[in-house]
Amino acid sequence: MSDGILARGPLTATPDNEGVDAAVAAARRVIAALLHAGNGSAAEMTDVAARLTEVAQHLEEHAPSREERLVDMWAGEGVTRHDPVTGPENAIAPPLPLRGLPDGSIVGTATLGLPYQGPPGCVHGGVSALLLDHTLGVANAWAGVSGMTGTLTLRYHRPTPLFVELTVRARQVSVDGRKIRTTGEILAGDEVCVSADGLFIDKHLPRPR
Amino acid sequence: MSDGILARGPLTATPDNEGVDAAVAAARRVIAALLHAGNGSAAEMTDVAARLTEVAQHLEEHAPSREERLVDMWAGEGVTRHDPVTGPENAIAPPLPLRGLPDGSIVGTATLGLPYQGPPGCVHGGVSALLLDHTLGVANAWAGVSGMTGTLTLRYHRPTPLFVELTVRARQVSVDGRKIRTTGEILAGDEVCVSADGLFIDKHLPRPR
pLDDT tens digits for B113-127? Predict the structure, then answer.
């Protein structure tokens, strides 16, 4: 990104580096380390499994009911904290922080490791689809009219590398009644690896109460 | 699935319930429990973060180099053990076990929880894309001619529910030179939630050596 483009603040939740966010960041490190270690590792996997199970039990004992938690997740500012792409509370998310630009588009960068692998050394095509679907949705929110994905078309131009900083960007193209057109890309350096065209429908499911 | 349809064996790695697979299964439980607990939880998150960091450090100390690990991952039977959809070594994977059917199609079932949420109580559209991209790829492998995703089109027919057993199925439609056409769906009960059409190209990246 050019330094001349000013960010207009994050569109995604900023990790707190404490509380659940710190625990989730550590969980991401565990996920990657398990894949790096593999079955041939000299690590004591039985002990690792026991320690992780203990952590899960501790968390489960202190968790609210699923119904209570869903209400809480969808209240107020909570909505960007738990999704599987940008959420600081979701260990599956790389995470991909996104920010809005004055030209109406949005952009973010992330470097993906082994948990996101498809072909050897490359990002899984479905992971690229996940990142783009979400980023197109956030671009709609940034543009002011958002909705649910109706049709999403992904074009894979070249392999998307792991271990390299990727840029993900998107912008709303048009709004025609309830139909929203949105496009986006994943780039490695200046090269477009994957592009996406989305047709979104301006409707929203009710939030749990 | 009808009981009259005979499975012809799994197309995906079967978890061992020991070694790294058991540790990964416990890590999945931690990921879900962190999301269920959230920031309002009475759980001692600083302690949870410390315990997870210790586990990550132990694993990292015993891991091979990235280059060695990539060679090992892609050797022999390893290829289905680590992907983010079916892999028993990948905590991001739900996992979705897939099996081939005599009619040439493949099918699997999975129930997705909070880590895979998009709209309230529903599967993230990008997660559906991830599952379908991968399942279409495995359908190609089952049919005998596989490749890399060229174009993938997803149609979202209705919200895909969390916490309900979903069926994911796919089949190769045609092979024309290097162009492979493949389709698939995600169903909740008998209702199609998401359908996918893929154009794959019969080419493969070299395995790391």
Answer: 999 999 999 999 999
- Enclosing domain of residue B143: 19-201
Tokens of A71: 């209400």
Task: Specify the residue for token string 């483009």.
Answer: A5
Task: Tell me if residue B100 falls in helix, strand or coil.
Answer: strand
- Tell whether A4 is covered by a domain: no
Is position B83 within any domain?
Answer: yes
CB contacts under 8 A, A 85-124 vs B, are 85, 89-92, 114-122, 124
**Which stretches of chain B are DSSP H helices?**
19-37, 45-61, 66-73, 125-143
**Is residue A147 one of the residues assigned to a domain?**
yes
ipTM surpassing 0.90, yes or no? yes
CA B76 from chain center: how many Å? 20
β B165-176/B106-111 pair status: antiparallel
Instruction: Provide the domain count of chain A.
Output: 1
Chain A residues near residue B69 by CB distance under 8 angstroms = 36, 38, 114
Residue B146's SS3 state is: coil
Residue B3 lies in a domain: no
Q: Could you tell me the CATH number of the domain that includes residue B75?
A: 3.10.129.10
Helices (H) then strands (E): counts for chain B: 4, 6
The count of residues in chain B is 209
Which residues on chain A are in Cβ contact (under 8 Å) with B58?
43-44, 48
Smallest CA-to-CA distance from A19 within B51, B171, B69, B40 is with B40
Query: What pTM does this model have?
Result: 0.94
Structure tokens at B204: 């493969």
Q: Select from B52, B20, B56 the least CA-distant residue to A54.
A: B52
**Residues of chain B found within 8 Å of residue A134, distances taken between Cβ atoms:** 124, 126
pLDDT in tens, A61-107: 999 999 999 998 988 766 689 999 999 999 999 999 999 998 999 99
Query: What distance in Å separates the CA atoms of residue A33 and residue A133, rounded to the nearest whole number?
Result: 27
Residues 6+ apart with CB under 8 A from B83: A117, A118, A124, B90, B93, B134
CB B66 within 8 A of CB A106: no
